Structures are given as C-alpha cells and as structure tokens.
C-alpha cells in the first residue's frame, strides 16, 4: 500500500463501464473512509497510461468492441501487470473478468486476454440473465455471494486457479462454478456494483491492499439487501 | 359499431374492416376496464390487415418523435403546436409501438396531421409504414441493459433507418450518438436540446476515439464528428428560432429539459409551416401527460409525480424537483428491467438537504446506494406511510415505471 492512502484505480471507464460499474469504486472508497482510511480514486481513460502504483484495480463490463480494444491497450501498456507483480489487488467484473484470462470471444473471434490467470472464455449457448447466487470457496471466509448476471460468455478455469463460488442459482462460469479467485485477484460474472450486495468481498480487497484486517462496519442496510435478494432465489 | 367517415372511404376493404374492428375492440377493452384500449385495438386491426398502419397513415402528413427520454412529452407538445394547422392524430397515451400507432390513427378518424411517439427500436419499421414528413430524434442513453440494445447499436439502427429516406430530421445537436445517426439524412434541423447524461457517449461511434466536451461544445478527437451548429436553442426561458428571434415559452411542465422539448416541438412544427409565435401559447396549455408531472392533493399534502425510467431521466428529475420532501420509489419488474445496477450511475447528491423517503419493491437497493452516496433517508413500506411521515405541504415523488404506476393508482390514476 502506498504510504498516504488507499489508491483505487478504475481502469478505462470509457471502454469498460456498463450499468453501475462505478458502484464498486464508490463502495470501496466509502468502506475505507468509514474506517478512517484516506482514499484516492483514479479513473484512467484508455488513451492514458495506467499507473502502476495503485492498491486496488477495478475492471468493469463492456461490449465486444470496447472489450477487445481494452485488452490490446492494457497489453501494450503493461501498467496493470506491473502493479499486480508488486502486490496490488484486482477486482474484475464481466467483460473485465474475461480479460484476465488467456483468451476471450468478441466480435466473432477469439481474442488474446491479459493472461494474468489460468482461464479462458468463450460463448455459451444462451445468454445468462438474472439473479446469481453461490457458496464461496471456504478458504475465503465469505458469506454466500449474491448478484445479478447478464452475459453471453462461459469461462473455463484452468488447473492453477480456484472458483470464487459454487453456483446455487444462475449460471456464473458454466452453471456449476462462478468467478475466480487467485492470489489477490477476484473475477466475477456478478455484474455492475457487485460489492453493494457483497461488502465482504470489498473488505477482502481492502484487507489485501492494506495488509490489515478490516474491523466491522454497521452494515444494516447491505445486510437487509442481501437477505432480501438471497430469500428471493431460495 | 362506429361509423367511418373521411379517408376511410378510400381505404381498401380489408383495411376498412380492420379499422372498424380495431376501434370496436379498443372501445370494448375500455368498457371492460381493461386498460385504455390503446394497444389491443391496434393489435387486432393489424391481425386483420398487416398493412393497416400504412393505410391509415396515407393521406396524412406525419411527424415521428423518438429517443430514450422525453418522447411522450415532446409528442404531446408537438401535437399541440401542430394544432395551429388543424386536427392532429396522436398516440398521447404513450403506446409507442406499431399497435399503438394503429389504434391512435384508427381512433382519430380523418385528420390531416399525425404526431406519433415511436419506441426507439421501431423507428425503421414505422418510418417505412408512415412515410413521415419529419422525424424528431431527442437523445440516446442506456435504458434497460438486460433487454434493450446497446446505445451504439441503437444509434446504428437509427442511422440505417434514416439513410436515403425522403424525410426531414429534427435532431439534438448536443447528443453525439444522435448527431452521428442523424447526419446521414438529406436534410436536418439541429436543436440544442442539451445533454445532462454523458456517460454513453464518450466514445465516438464513427471511429472509436474519445469525445471531448468543452463548455457545451463537443468534438471527436479522431474524426470529423462534432457538434453541428444548432438552428434552434434555448436562452433562459426563451426558445430562439433560426432567425434569432426569442420566443418566451411559459410551460406548465417543469425544468429545462421540458423547455428543450418545447424547442424540438417548435422546430418540428416549423417544418409543417407553423410559426413559433402561433404555437407557443398552445404549448403553455399542456399540463400532465399520462400522469407525468401530475399533481394531486391528499391529506393536506400536495403531491407531484415525476417519472424517471433510466439514469438520464433521474438526473433530469432532480433538476425539476423542488427543494421539498421527496419520495423515491424503485421497482424492478419486467417493464422496469430486472437489474437495479443503474442506481450507481446516478449521483443522488442533489437530494442532499431534502427530507428523503424511500419505498418500492427494491427500496433496499436504493437504501445501500443512498448510504454510500451520503444521502440520509427514511424507509417507508407504503405510499400512505410516506404521506404520514411528512408534514402537510409539498411532496415530490420520483419513481421508475411500475413504481410510478403504483403510486398513480393510489391517487386514483391522477392525470
Ligand atoms: Zn470519431
């Protein structure tokens, strides 16, 4: 972590931003500030250099064209790669999640991903739209995940990575597993403001970034929201 | 059965039957209390004669109005302005797909003019069916991602719909997506309608480069797409016409957004020969539209209803709403879209300092959003409880589609 504050970097909001992706940045910043931690949020456009000094990087969703463009620019830029090598955390959603793998399918062809994790994505037979819920990997110490998914992709995890959760409702990666977790990287098909319903994932990212455990916050409203959404799919 | 007069004499027999049955079905639907009949009649009519919309539009001079936001209001304002010339058929209840257009034209009987609100997705089809004299394009922004086409995709569909047509386009110069779609048309009138929502047009639809915005102007950094010089613009409360003449527009509808809608209405009507000075007084007579902006009084509370269906609409509603207690209501039923993620695209901080109440099916999503936004609020489980929670006086209600309809029903479908 940089000495003064937690630096949150939203990567290419001009390309990778669909519904509510800004939410993850807002929620992380809010949860840090509520604990008295200074926060700096940075939005880096695709025609700018990616800083490599960030603590938490965010990749959002996007359509095929922008997704492919984002992959090319990040591969040339290398800023995110350097940041992760020096210990930064990454939270990647939807199209951004697919980008962390070796390849993804966009505009009718396979495109090279950032190759950060051992996974690859292609097109599924149907579009997955609706509530997504699952039981997280036990090692993560997280409560059940809940989100909304809206994607046509399917993601295949390699031997070197673990899923974020086992699916109980929805599709996620393939109907069985959802998302990925490896080192300080979390990827998920829970689109948009996934941290609104999963503040514990936000705290996990903050604890990775700061190296310290997060004391609890008054999460009465997020808890009510979680309970309502989890009850709706039960 | 209603007798037919006017242009129906010249309709093909099949179209006559279809029109007649369509009207009857609409009347029956209304009589049975099953909605206002604005869709069912057209649906049945089109089953009998698939070309009914073309037959009904033939012989009328037609204007179409489309866009993500403001099309119902702009259609109403345009119809009011066109009223200077004579009778105008219009789908004023917001039934904006071909079935609704068919019903509206069948119900109106013979009119020399028609002004139709068109759902963005149906523009091409309705242009083909009605050969409009003018098409007005207001704006394009994200609406319901889990089912609607992407913004750039929609702009591309519009572009294809307009290319090579013998129709005049009136378009918003401030929305890059609209400009890109409209500039393929043979003749365009540009209106500076404003764009409160920028987040769907940072990337050029022509070349993919960044779109730069400076003091209301905008341009692509990679190609020749840039803001055209508008012929119509706003100056405070006035609409300025292409000759530089100022027309003071006094509306009963709130906000700058509606003055911009009025400017578009005047620009469309001008293409039919209506002088702005003649139309302006008629615009001032337009009050609420299908409950939008309607005011009702209950238990000494004066309640005004504002509909906000998407992020751009919410920003506009905050601009219109007075600094008084405000109830926000959110649902996520089919007509609203099932996904509430858009809440994070809206900055709710303009509500700071107002007493804010929240309700609706998805009030908890809103609660978390407002907490992160630093806006304090009170959750209430019903509209009645919201009224009880505020002192006598004003209440602004801002709600998305089905939440709006729920509250409107509580107020006896106020209009
Ligand atoms: Zn360009």
Using brief descriptors, characterize the structure shown.
heterodimer; A: 234 residues; alpha/beta; Rossmann fold; six-stranded mixed sheet; four-stranded antiparallel sheet; 29% helix; globular; B: 415 residues; UDP-N-acetylmuramoyl-L-alanine:D-glutamate ligase; Protein-Tyrosine Phosphatase, Chain A; 2 domains; six-stranded parallel sheet; 14 helices
Please count the beta strands of chain B (DSSP E, at least 2 residues each): 17
Number of domains of chain B: 2
Q: Give the oligomeric state of the chains in this entry, treating copies of one chain as homo and distinct chains as hetero.
A: heterodimer
Main pleated sheet of chain A: 6 strands, mixed
Q: Treating each run of at least 4 consecutive H or I residues as one helix, how many helices of chain B? A: 14
The largest sheet of chain B, given as strand count, sense and whether it forms a barrel, is: 6 strands, parallel
CATH class of chain A reads: Alpha Beta
| Percent range of helical residues of chain B | 25-40%
Strand order of the largest sheet of chain B: 2-3-1-4-5-6
Tell me the span between the first and last alpha carbons of chain B. Answer: 29 Å
- Taken from the alpha-carbon principal axes, the silhouette of chain A is globular
Q: Count interface residues per chain for the largest interface.
A: A-B, 33 and 26 residues
Overall CATH architecture of the largest domain in chain B: 3-Layer(aba) Sandwich
CA-based shape of chain B: globular
Q: Over the alpha carbons, how many angstroms does the gyration radius of chain A reach?
A: 16 Å
Please state roughly what percent of the residues of chain B sit in beta strands, choosing from under 5%, 5-15%, 15-25%, 25-35%, 35-45% or over 45%.
15-25%
What's the mean pLDDT score of chain B?
90
């Amino acid at each position: 972590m940089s000495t003064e504050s937690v630096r949150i970097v939203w990567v290419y909001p001009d390309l990778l931003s669909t519904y509510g992706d800004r939410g993850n940045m807002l929620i992380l910043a809010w949860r840090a500030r509520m604990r008295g931690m200074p926060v700096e949020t940075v939005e880096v456009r695709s025609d700018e250099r990616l800083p490599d000094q960030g603590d938490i990087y965010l990749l959002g969703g996007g359509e095929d064209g922008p997704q492919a463009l984002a992959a090319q620019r990040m591969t040339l830029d290398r800023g995110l790669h350097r940041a992760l090598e020096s210990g930064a955390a990454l939270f990647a959603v939807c199209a951004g999640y697919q980008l962390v793998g070796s390849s993804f399918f966009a505009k009718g062809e396979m495109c090279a991903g950032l190759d950060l994790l051992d996974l690859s994505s292609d097109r599924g037979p149907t579009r997955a739209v609706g509530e997504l819920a699952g039981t997280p990997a036990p090692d993560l110490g997280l409560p059940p995940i809940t989100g909304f998914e809206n994607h046509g992709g399917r993601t295949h995890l390699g031997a070197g990575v673990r899923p974020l959760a086992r699916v109980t409702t929805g599709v996620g990666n393939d109907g069985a597993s959802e998302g990925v977790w490896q080192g300080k990287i979390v990827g998920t098909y829970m689109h948009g403001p996934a941290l609104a319903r999963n503040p514990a994932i936000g705290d996990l990212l903050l604890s990775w970034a700061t190296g310290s455990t997060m004391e609890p916050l008054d999460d009465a409203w997020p808890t009510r929201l979680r309970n309502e959404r989890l009850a709706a799919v039960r | 059965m209603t007798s037919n007069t006017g242009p129906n004499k010249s309709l093909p027999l099949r179209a006559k039957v279809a029109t007649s049955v369509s009207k009857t079905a609409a009347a029956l639907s209304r009589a049975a209390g099953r909605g206002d009949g604005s869709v069912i009649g057209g649906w049945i009519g089109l089953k009998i004669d698939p070309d009914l919309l073309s037959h009904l539009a033939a012989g009328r001079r037609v204007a179409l109005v489309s866009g993500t936001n403001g099309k119902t209001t702009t259609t109403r304002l345009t119809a009011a302005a066109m009223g200077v010339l004579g009778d105008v058929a219009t789908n004023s209840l917001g039934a904006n797909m071909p079935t609704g257009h068919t019903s509206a034209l069948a119900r109106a009987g013979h009119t020399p003019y028609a002004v139709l609100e068109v759902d963005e997705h149906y523009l091409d089809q309705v242009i083909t069916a009605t050969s409009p004299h003018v098409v007005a394009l207001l704006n394009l922004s994200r609406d319901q991602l889990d089912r609607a086409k992407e913004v750039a995709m929609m702009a591309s569909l519009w572009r294809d719909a307009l290319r090579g047509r013998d129709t005049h386009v009136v378009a918003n110069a401030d929305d890059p997506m609209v400009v890109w779609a409209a500039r393929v048309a043979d003749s365009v009138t540009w209106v500076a309608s404003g764009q409160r929502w920028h987040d769907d047009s940072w990337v050029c639809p022509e070349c993919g480069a960044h779109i730069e915005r400076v003091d209301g102007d905008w341009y692509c950094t990679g190609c020749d797409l840039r803001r055209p010089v508008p012929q119509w613009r706003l100056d405070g409360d006035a609409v300025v016409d292409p000759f530089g003449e100022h027309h003071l527009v006094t509306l009963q509808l709130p906000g700058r957004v509606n003055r911009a809608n009025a400017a578009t209405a005047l620009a469309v009507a001008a293409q039919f020969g209506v002088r702005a000075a003649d139309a302006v007084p008629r615009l001032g007579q337009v009050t609420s539209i299908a409950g939008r902006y309607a005011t009702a009084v209950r238990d000494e509370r004066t309640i005004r209803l504002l509909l906000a269906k998407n992020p751009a609409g919410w920003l506009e509603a905050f601009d219109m709403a007075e600094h008084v207690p405000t109830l926000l209501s959110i649902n996520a039923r089919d007509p609203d879209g099932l996904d509430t993620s858009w809440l994070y695209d809206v900055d709710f901080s303009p509500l700071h300092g107002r007493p804010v109440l929240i309700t609706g099916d998805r009030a908890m999503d809103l609660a978390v959003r407002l907490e992160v936004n630093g806006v304090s609020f009170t959750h209430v489980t019903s509209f009645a409880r919201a009224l009880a929670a505020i002192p006598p006086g004003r209440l602004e209600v801002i709600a998305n589609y089905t939440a709006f309809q729920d509250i409107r029903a509580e107020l006896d479908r106020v209009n």
